[in-house]
């Protein structure tokens, strides 16, 4: 199967794998697919045997045209996603602190204000492309706010962050790779500037938390510290908006695809929390990550060698025997935000953004519907969501 086609709809492969004994090797992923709920949960609970190194393997390596630009920037150091043990705990600490329940609660008024402003911009039009007009801008503005970025820097920073994803996961010509690399380098210099400023003038934001945790003390940041901080700020920026964008897009898509679901939610807004969890279960915003086997072992009846790669599918686990999308079902276990030491530290922030979004839509646009039932999903497993979602009312 074409890789892009697989990314757009991996669920037939997931379903087939769940029916087979053991693990299934999927050529498109170049990995053994871990597809069943209990198996996914077990792998995530055994980080010593299933390492996070190489968790996000690129589909396309930067070529010379891009590399000659990337050397002009910062970064290139491991981020929290691909580390294990003490190193992972060190890199995760500022995220846990910066995305604590208290910090998320303090951000709620900002989220609510931006949600209302974004809806204001199109409410009178009778139609909207939801992803570009609301889902992406809200998630971008919120993570930018928490990182302490100047509002004027947020959208350009997020767009440049997206170029990093393009460079590694989209086919490009040499010239296109070079252009993407230049955008990435501009972002890295921007983030480096924020890091150095926060060293001198700390604030109550995620950037300050990152600087304090990764470079304790008050001395000027060393080049190595700057590289590590920028790598992890860049990762935070990308992860902080892509997954929330996906969750917001998928929730609205599935609620409107079956009109009865949306009408039920409008009649019973107390089901909003259930709708959020059902979206994360049914359409995990991140479909999964790779893990590297650290020693020879037998897992789910399959012999694995040290160095083998498994793809741990949160998306498949969510549909393992749980049925279709239904916000009225009894609460179902899911792994839509990961599990264990690598559980998403920003899950509560994502939930709050979707909660506020659904409350806003129920109150102001209860008559929204899909313009067409045909919706194309983005060709990626990193942020599972519609490419575009055209709504009318």
Write up this protein.
Helix 7 crosses helix 8 and helix 8 packs across helix 9. Helices cover about 55% and strands about 10% of the residues. The strands form three sheets. Strands 1-2-8-5-3 form a five-stranded mixed sheet, sandwiched between helices. It has a three-stranded antiparallel sheet with strand order 4-10-9. The protein has a two-stranded antiparallel ribbon with strand order 6-7. The radius of gyration is 21 Å and the shape is globular. The chain has a single domain, classed as Cytochrome P450 (Cytochrome p450, Orthogonal Bundle), CATH 1.10.630.10. The chain is an alpha+beta fold and about 400 residues long. Strand 6 and strand 7 form a beta hairpin. The mean pLDDT is about 95.
Order of helices and strands: HHEEHEHHHEHHHHHHHEEEEHHEE
Number of domains: 1
Number of helices: 15
Q: From the helix content, strand content and strand pairing, which structural class follows? A: alpha+beta
CATH architecture term: Orthogonal Bundle
The CATH top-level class label: Mainly Alpha
What is the beta-strand fraction? 5-15%
Number of distinct beta strands: 10
Family: Belongs to the cytochrome P450 family.
GO molecular function: heme binding; iron ion binding; monooxygenase activity; oxidoreductase activity, acting on paired donors, with incorporation or reduction of molecular oxygen
Organism: Nonomuraea endophytica
Protein name: Cytochrome P450
């Amino acid at each position: 199967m074409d890789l892009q086609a697989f990314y757009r709809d991996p669920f037939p492969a997931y379903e087939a794998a769940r029916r087979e004994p053991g693990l299934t090797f999927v050529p498109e992923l170049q990995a053994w697919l871990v597809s069943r709920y209990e198996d996914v949960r077990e792998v995530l609970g055994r980080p010593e045997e299933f390492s996070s190194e190489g968790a996000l393997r690129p589909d396309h390596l930067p070529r010379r045209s891009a590399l000659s630009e990337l050397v002009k920037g910062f970064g290139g150091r491991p981020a929290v996603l691909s580390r294990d043990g003490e190193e992972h705990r060190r890199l995760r600490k500022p995220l846990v602190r910066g995305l604590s329940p208290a910090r998320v609660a303090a951000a709620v008024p900002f989220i609510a204000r931006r949600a209302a402003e974004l809806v204001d911009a199109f409410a009178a039009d009778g139609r909207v492309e939801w992803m570009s007009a609301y889902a992406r801008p809200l998630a971008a503005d919120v993570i930018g706010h928490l990182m302490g970025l100047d509002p004027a820097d947020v959208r350009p920073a997020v767009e440049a962050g997206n170029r990093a994803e393009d460079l590694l996961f989209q086919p490009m010509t040499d010239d296109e790779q070079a252009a993407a690399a230049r955008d990435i380098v501009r972002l890295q210099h921007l983030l480096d500037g924020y890091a150095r400023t926060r060293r001198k003038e700390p604030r109550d934001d995620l950037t300050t938390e990152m600087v304090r945790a990764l470079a304790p003390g008050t001395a000027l940041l060393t080049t190595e510290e700057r590289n590590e901080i920028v790598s992890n700020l860049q990762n935070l920026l990308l992860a902080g908006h892509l997954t929330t964008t996906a969750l917001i897009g998928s929730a609205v898509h599935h609620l409107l695809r079956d009109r009865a679901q949306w009408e039920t939610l409008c009649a019973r807004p107390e089901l909003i929390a259930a709708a959020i969890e059902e979206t994360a279960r049914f359409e995990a915003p991140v479909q999964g990550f790779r893990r590297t086997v650290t020693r020879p072992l037998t897992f789910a009846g399959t012999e694995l060698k040290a160095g083998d790669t498994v793809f741990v599918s949160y998306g498949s686990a969510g549909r393992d025997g749980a049925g279709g999308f239904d916000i009225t079902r009894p609460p179902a276990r899911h792994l839509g935000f990961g599990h264990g030491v690598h559980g998403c530290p920003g899950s509560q922030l994502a939930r709050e953004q979707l909660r506020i979004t659904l409350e806003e839509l129920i109150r102001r646009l209860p008559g929204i519907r899909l313009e067409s039932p045909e919706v194309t999903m983005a060709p990626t497993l990193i942020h599972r969501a519609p490419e575009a979602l055209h709504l009318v009312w």
